[in-house]
Design goal:
The complex is a heterodimer. Chain A is an alpha+beta fold. Chain A contains two helices and five strands; from the N terminus they run βββββαα. In chain A, β1 and β2 form a beta hairpin. Chain B is of the alpha/beta class. The chains are: A alpha+beta, B alpha/beta.
Chain lengths: 92, 363
């Protein structure tokens, strides 16, 4: 439940005159939206730890790859697929 | 996958286990508070690798498990009787209430949706202005910023048909409740890494001092957990008690200031009922009065009969470390994940369910 998954910021969209910073984040190719309001200095190309659609901290690339690799191998990425929104990505 | 090995490499795991065995002299009971850590310890077989005199006690850190059955009944009631679009995380949807789970409510025609993020629920509310959308907002401190942010987003957009049904719980008051129990057997804690990534670590200093108990902020991967256990054992063997941080690569001492600010904006601390444990003072969040339009508890009048727990369930004893899950007479017989009698059997992060799924009957 407190799982946070590292992903790479692909693009950033500013809403409400810059008050809300939303990003498209790639988790090993699965793209999800995440709020960057908790890590306002995060930029395109940075890696962030994302918990339920909100980035909670920045991590370096090596750490991100290690953790993502571990979570994938351990079969802990179900929450990326376990949704019903029409915009949900397909399971890889 | 060249990076994977480092977190579960047999060489590193072996070296840490040897170091733990070399260090430990006494018998120690260490509680990992977080259900994610319980899950990782069980799944990776670490419990059977630790020396017998290092006993892990699995704490109440599974928010889905400690959500009171009456709140699940409320959510089901909202979905079935109030025609709301009821959204929550996948784990929560599957937990049985006294009558049915939200998943069963869905199969009976309730509009129940499994979401990845509460921010998606705000979008659904925007797209369905004629319907009420409720997000069943469970979680520890890690999840509080996301749930709070959903209210901030709805408020900013002027969305009136969105609200949250909160069952938010806090880790330090639960640790205090465990330590103040006369029968407490906990000698040290592994604190939950991502909770501390949000809140920082300062809340734990008073607990360390008051109960003279070592607390080590720890991550989730097998190597993290063994490092955290080793740091804890070293303190215990030397008679020290201090707060240490194993998970420095993610946890900063002061936490995430932006996250704390959004939580403070929307939530206030309140007493909270923990399934299997009871009422713990100041142990949860409720929506502040200023935002009560977004509080499903205030928005809908929900009159349901209070549900009672099964009296034969020993989950309280499991979560306090008095017994191991498999030592309960109901384990795997009258109580299984499909038909749980109590909280820790309901989600894969609960201690009983973790033991059941990984067939652990000896640790």
């Amino acid at each position: 439940m407190c799982l946070a998954i590292p992903g790479k910021i692909q693009s950033i969209e500013l809403l409400y005159g810059g008050a809300v910073k939303m990003a498209k984040v790639s988790f090993g190719g699965i793209i999800k939206e995440a709020s960057l309001e908790m890590v306002p200095t995060a930029d395109v190309g940075d890696y962030v730890l994302v918990h339920v659609g909100v980035a909670i901290s920045k991590v370096n690339e090596e750490e991100a790859n290690k953790v993502f690799g571990y979570l994938k191998e351990a079969g802990e990425l179900d929450e990326l697929y376990d949704t019903e929104l029409s915009s949900s990505p397909q399971k890889l | 996958m060249k990076y994977v090995s480092e977190f579960r490499s047999p060489e590193i795991v072996d070296a840490l286990l040897k170091e733990i065995k070399r260090t430990v002299k006494g018998t120690w009971h260490i509680m990992e508070v977080c259900g994610g850590q319980t899950h990782s310890l069980v799944k990776n077989g670490l419990l059977n690798m630790l020396p017998d005199n290092v006993q892990m006690i699995h704490g109440p850190g599974c928010p889905v498990c400690v959500t009171p059955i009456s709140l699940i009944d409320k959510a089901v009631h909202l979905a079935m009787e109030h025609d709301v679009i009821l959204c929550s995380f996948g784990d929560m949807i599957r937990v049985p209430g006294s009558g049915m789970s939200l998943l069963e409510a869905k199969s009976k025609g309730g509009d129940v949706r499994i979401l990845y993020s509460p921010l998606e629920a705000v979008k659904i509310a925007k797209e369905n202005p004629a319907r009420e959308v409720v997000f069943f907002a469970v979680g520890f401190e890690t999840t509080a910023p996301a749930n709070a942010l959903s209210v901030v987003h709805a408020h900013r957009e002027g969305i009136k048909n969105y609200s949250i049904l909160t069952s938010h719980v806090l880790v330090p008051p639960a640790m205090e409740a465990i330590m103040s129990d006369d029968d407490c057997r906990v000698d040290a804690f592994l604190a939950a890494g991502h909770v501390c990534a949000i809140m920082g670590i300062s809340e734990y200093y008073p607990l360390v001092e008051k109960y003279q108990v070592p607390i080590v902020v720890t991550g989730f991967e097998p190597v993290d957990l063994l490092e955290g256990i080793l740091m804890t054992v070293k303190q215990l063997e030397s008679g020290e008690y201090k707060l240490e941080n194993q998970y420095t690569r993610v946890v900063e001492s002061e936490g995430n200031k932006n996250a704390i600010a959004v939580v403070d904006k929307i939530f206030e601390v309140t007493n909270r009922e923990w399934r299997g444990i009871g009422n713990i003072p100041f142990s949860g969040y409720a929506v502040k009065k200023d935002y009560s339009d977004y509080d499903a508890n205030k928005k809908f009048s929900i009159a349901i009969t209070e549900a009672h727990e099964d009296v034969t369930c020993l989950s309280g004893d499991v979560m306090k470390g008095k017994i191991k899950p498999h030592q309960c007479p109901n384990f795997g017989t009258k109580c299984t994940p499909l038909k749980p009698l109590g909280a820790p059997m309901v989600s894969s992060e609960g201690a009983c369910a973790a033991y059941y799924h990984y067939n652990l009957t000896t640790a």
